[in-house]
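Local shape tokens

___
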Amino acid sequence: METSDLDSLLDKYKIRADLTHRVGLEDCSGVRAFKVEGKEIGSDLLELYILDIPEGRQIACYPHLVGDKFDRLNRACASKASRAIKEITKFNRKGKFALHLHILRAAPGYRLWEAFGGLGIEVPQLWIRPRYKRISYRDHLIEDKHLEIVYRDFESLPKNEDLMLIVPDTIASGRSMVLSIEELLRASLEVRSRVRELMLYGFVSLEGVEFLQERAKKWGIKLTAFALESITPLAFNRYDMPLYGADESYWEKTGKVKLLGGITDRSVLKAFLPKYVPGCDQPGDFSARQKRLFNGREYELGGIAQHLKNSIKLIEDLERIPNCLESWQTEIAERELIRLREVLSLYQKNLEEKEKN
């Protein structure tokens, strides 16, 4: 894409590519880090980074990647990200007791705790499960009234320590993460420990990180966030996290076109353009893309088939919005629809064969 065309795209979708500054990394092949700074972002208690990793791009661009492939991509992504996080934060030399909080069911799929273990950094694990009281796929409009904690395991929480909490998860509105962290803060006080720093990793929306930043100020905790590929906008349904594109949920509700654009580096955007379907939710349903999920009591199957069907429907709905996609973007959408239908057909065939046997 020509520079003028890229500038036109930036202007059309109001994508912010002027807030990133490359961070030099010494021993982190396969990952680029960008610090996000600007008057729109920032506080003494917030450091915000974007990590560009080939496997992260694949996860974001290709919703047809599920199951074992999805898991391998997350393992590779976390392996590279962990080295960058270690170098940027030097967290294992800070004198704080580091803990890893798993927000169930989806977050363990980011595989960050395994990656730190591969670096020889053992981080004790805590577990918590916030749950919506009703089905919430692509609809978090009234989520505050429908969240509850249904499981927690804080056995590894140490006494009388200054803590650094590492939390990988998809951060859309940030409400479920805040609920989980506040539960841990209360438990920490009971054992006379204090959370001094919060480190986030995953797909991150601007609204979500701003909400967490506001709460971090209230808690007196430093917040460092490592977002995969971009800081996304949050769609009308408070669920979808596109890099850029039309807000399908807004169109479905109002019949009006609303364009969304996130924050990323120009070079990252250029790498996305030939692959990404504008308007698609980058993390997708992160739980449903996994084969197995721990729910606090046992392991259960993810919802791969449903994720594939939902992804097909979303892209088809985006194609129906008038003047939503340019011809080259429609070609990308059609290629991804072919892959999604192929994977769905193969997955359903495998299920039928297992049932016969």
